[in-house]
Amino acid sequence: MDQDALRKLLAAVRSGEVDVEQGLERLRALPFLEIGSHTTIDLHRPLRNGFPEVIYAEGKTPEQVAEIFARMAEHGPVLATRASAETAERVLGACPGACHNPLARTLTIGEEAVAARPGEIAIVTAGTSDLPVAEEARVTCAMFGHPARLISDVGVAGVHRLFHRLDELRGARVVVVVAGMEGALASVVGGLVPQPVIAVPTSVGYGASFHGLSALLGMLTSCAGGVSVVNIDNGFGAACAACRIANLPDSPSE
After folding, report:
1. What is the pLDDT of residues 25-34, one digit of tens each?
2. Is the pTM of this model over 0.70?
């Protein structure tokens, strides 16, 4: 239950449209919902920080994810990340209305009910191989109310491709840069745009890239001031940070 839904419920109780006992029944599961012995869903999270709980599917059985997904869908839109093909098949069987994005490894339902918020987010990748992480970020942004513009394959090996898209980047509220190898694209973008830049190192690269560690260290030591960095392959975390920034008012009076 988010703030708008809670306001509507309280207004309905005050007007008499919903009696007190009915209101109590609807609020009974507000803080959390226990599912068997394996999961306790945090239904109170949207009231605390504006974002619903998200299912991290990796490490859970397909049966567990399907059960969690179906129960959460009773309360609103749902996002699950890092879902395998087997898990996706199980969830789609339990929730035929769900959508599977195999590139992003996400499962969603109820995206059409997510209200769009102002503040565009741009997601930029150095190469095509970075797209799975970028897609995870894009889907997460959409589920949190910020449809994102995806600009792919503009890495520093052909940096003129990036210059061609600068107007699009400068029109965004936040820029997420997804890159593997040496991770240099984040520094380049950070030196060209005034917006907050969130860098995502990916595990793309040859042996000495150490599964993303080189990109991570390169981004952490960026010479472009103000570049923030999330963990390796963490498109979800970058999207959450970008949405928090995009949700900030333009001025203190708003």
Report:
1. 766 656 767 7
2. yes
